Amino acid sequence: MKRGLFLVIEGPDASGQSTQTELLAKWFERRGLKVFVTKEPTNSLIGGVIRAVLKKEWKIDMRTLQLLFTADRAHHLRMEINPMLERGINVVCDRYILSTLAFGSTEEDLEWLKQINSKFPEPDLTFILNVPGKICAERIAKSRFGFEFFETAEKLEIIRKNYLDLKDFYKNTHVIKGYNRSPVKVHKDIVEIIEKFCLEKGIKI
Ligand SMILES: Nc1ncnc2c1ncn2[C@@H]1O[C@H](COP(=O)(O)OP(=O)(O)OP(=O)(O)O)[C@@H](O)[C@H]1O
Ligand SMILES: [Mg+2]
C-alpha cells in the first residue's frame, strides 16, 4: 500500500500553525483523501506533563523539558504517526522536530538536541510559518490578559530567527510568509507546494 504523506507545520507561537493545520485537513477531506491531524505536544500522559510545565504548574529545567518533548515524539511516532502513514493515511502534524530545535536551542546545545532526535523520520514536507515576533506578540495580546508584550515579542523574534536558520535541516522545507495576508492566502501557498511535490514524485493526490 502507498504510504501517506507526512506533512509538518512549524513556526513561532501564534504564527498560525493550528489555523493552517485545520485548513489543510479540510483540503484533504474535500478531496476525499484520508487525513490524520495531530499535534505536539500530544494528548498522551507525556504531553500532559509537558503542558503542565508550559503552564508553569511544574518547574523543571530546559534539558529535562527537551527530553520530555523528545520522548513524547517517540511515542507519537510509534503509536500514531507511523501506523497511520503505513495504512496510507496522510498525516498533518502541528509542530515536530524543528520546534525542539528552535525553542530548545535558546538554552541547550543544538547539536545535542539534533542527536536526541536523530532516529526520527524526516517529513515529506515541512512548512515554516514566517511571522515577525512583534506580530506574533500582537496576536497573543488579543487573547491573553496582562502579558509582557516587549519581552514576548523579543523572544518570539529569536525563535523566528532560529527557525530560519534551520530551513535546510530537512530537505523539503519551505518558508511561508504568514503575516500581512489572510490565512486562506497562506493556505493556498502551502497547497501549491504540496501539489507540485506530488506531481514531481508521481504521487496521485
Ligand atoms: N494570516 C493570519 N493573519 C492574521 N491573523 C492570523 C493569521 N493566521 C492566524 N491568525 C490568528 O492568529 C492567532 C494564532 O493563530 P493559531 O492559533 O493558528 O497559531 P498557532 O501557531 O497555532 O499558535 P500556538 O503556537 O499558540 O498554538 C489566531 O487568533 C488566528 O486567528
Ligand atoms: Mg496552535
Tell me what the structure shows.
This protein has 205 residues and is an alpha/beta fold. It has one domain: Rossmann fold (3-Layer(aba) Sandwich), CATH 3.40.50. The chain has eight helices and five strands; from the N terminus they run βαβααβααβααβα. The chain has a five-stranded parallel sheet with strand order 2-3-1-4-5, with helices on both faces. The protein is globular and about 45 Å long. The two termini are 15 Å apart. The structure holds adenosine-5'-triphosphate and magnesium ion. Adenosine-5'-triphosphate binds next to helix 1 and helix 8. Magnesium ion binds next to helix 1.
Concise account of the structure shown:
The chain is of the alpha/beta class and 205 residues long. It contains 8 helices and 5 strands.
